[in-house]
UniProtKB/TrEMBL annotation:
GO molecular function: translation elongation factor activity
Example of a GO biological process term: peptide biosynthetic process
NCBIfam families listed in its UniProt record: efp, PRK00529.1
Organism listed in the record: Hippea maritima (strain ATCC 700847 / DSM 10411 / MH2)
Protein name (record): Elongation factor P
Function according to Swiss-Prot or TrEMBL: Involved in peptide bond synthesis. Stimulates efficient translation and peptide-bond synthesis on native or reconstituted 70S ribosomes in vitro. Probably functions indirectly by altering the affinity of the ribosome for aminoacyl-tRNA, thus increasing their reactivity as acceptors for peptidyl transferase.
Residues of the Translation elongation factor P/YeiP central domain: 70-124
Compartments where located: Cytoplasm
């Protein structure tokens, strides 16, 4: 039997199962009106679709906790079935579709680790470390006098992602990317 949680135990990050889908509490507010029963207004993010919804529950209502777990997995390769991952503890392999991968697909490298969120044993999301280091494989050459302050140009990374980088960067440079925003952070000296 799944664990139940009362509205007075709500916290940000708690995962609930509502109408068969996993949700995470983004924000909540306990409201005690002058008349009538107290209630809780909750902002919930659907962990499958990333949509945010607002719901209201009477104070004391119990909801079912979602059976969501996060596991460190190693990305192996991409094939026609999707992105192949291996659980580092059990060595079980999971095939993750393009839509579940989301933006993580732009920045993931073979043999690197990522956190895979599982709901009822099925992958529903992939999150990478906040920063990754990738090599520039294609970009326009810089010109003498170009500095970081003059603007940006597109650069294709080893994963196929295209990001805006300062003019002074060239092919072969390794750069740090923020995976949350997809933006260039800095050049990595190696």
């Amino acid at each position: 039997m799944a664990e139940m949680i009362a509205t007075n135990e709500f916290k940000r990050g708690v995962k609930l199962e509502i109408e068969g889908d996993p949700y995470e509490i983004v924000d909540y507010e306990h409201v005690k009106p002058g008349k009538g029963q107290a209630f809780v207004r909750v902002k919930l993010k659907n962990l499958k679709t990333e949509n945010v919804v607002e719901k209201t529950y009477k104070s004391g209502t119990k909801l079912q906790k979602a059976e969501v777990e996060e596991r460190m997995m190693q990305y192996l390769y991409k094939d026609n079935d999707g992105y192949q991952f291996m659980d580092l503890n059990t060595y079980d392999q999971y095939s993750i579709s393009e839509d579940v991968m989301g933006d993580a697909a732009k920045f993931i490298q073979e043999n690197k680790e990522a956190t895979v969120m599982l709901y009822n044993g099925l992958p529903i999301g992939v999150s990478l470390p906040n920063f990754v280091e990738l090599k520039i494989v294609e970009t326009e050459p810089g010109f003498k006098g170009d500095t970081a302050a003059t603007g940006t140009k597109p650069a294709t990374l080893e994963t196929g992602a295209v990001v805006q980088v300062p003019f002074f960067l060239k092919e072969g440079d390794i750069i740090k990317i923020d995976t949350r925003t997809g933006e260039y952070v800095e050049r990595v000296n190696k």
